[in-house]
Write a structure and sequence with these properties.
By secondary structure, the protein is an all-alpha fold. The protein is built from five helices and no strands.
Length: 198
């Protein structure tokens, strides 16, 4: 409260937590380190000037293909192998629980309820790979719950009864869009998750 961390995008998420921790809880004299965006807080955004956001090729034709960080060479984050990514920020690829499994199209501008992944600044295939990894973690947790308590076999079936793009969403979605997500909290006592790790 009152320390200046609120009111900014990400303030109540990891960005704000990390800033608060190193500024207030564990301050040191030289606590600034720039982490490589292809490996930490990976967003899958285009690191080259090719299209949006904040770049229009027709206005700046001489910049097309150059690095957004103004370096001569830069790693293409859209091609970074998953094994080299330490943490993910789902902004461009959409949140895994939004069940977005289609590419964005101009027609979606008219229909606010329809969402897709914008290939002008993201690699759709890489996004599906990253989202699938998140759903794999959720599936692993569901499996741990059922191993710990046989009563969860029926619940696991409800958690995984979605048919939408099962290769990516692993039964956690009925269709494209956030309203199609099957939440873990549906019909269960939330303390089961706490007890899972005890």
């Amino acid at each position: 409260g009152g320390l200046g961390y609120a009111g900014k995008v990400g303030a109540m998420a990891m960005q704000g937590l990390i800033a608060y921790y190193y500024d207030e809880i564990h301050p040191t004299k030289n606590n600034v380190v720039e982490l490589h965006g292809c490996h930490y807080n990976w967003m899958g955004g285009d690191v080259f000037y090719r299209d949006v956001p904040a770049f229009y090729p027709k206005q700046f034709p001489n910049a097309v293909g150059k690095c957004r960080n103004n370096q001569r060479n830069c790693e293409d984050c859209q091609k970074t192998p998953f094994a080299e990514i330490s943490s993910v920020h789902y902004t461009n690829c959409r949140k895994p629980w939004n069940c977005i499994g289609v590419k964005w199209s101009k027609e979606q501008r008219k229909d606010r309820s329809s969402q897709g992944i914008d290939e002008r600044n993201s690699n759709f295939t890489k996004c599906m790979e990253i989202i699938s990894k998140w759903h794999s973690l959720r599936t692993d947790m569901e499996n741990m719950l059922t191993q710990k308590n046989n009563l969860f076999w029926q619940q696991k079936r409800r958690w995984q009864n979605g048919t939408y793009n099962r290769n990516v969403f692993q039964g956690h979605c009925h269709g494209n869009g956030q309203k199609q997500y099957i939440p873990l909290s549906r019909g269960v006592d939330p303390t089961i998750f706490r007890d899972l790790y005890n």
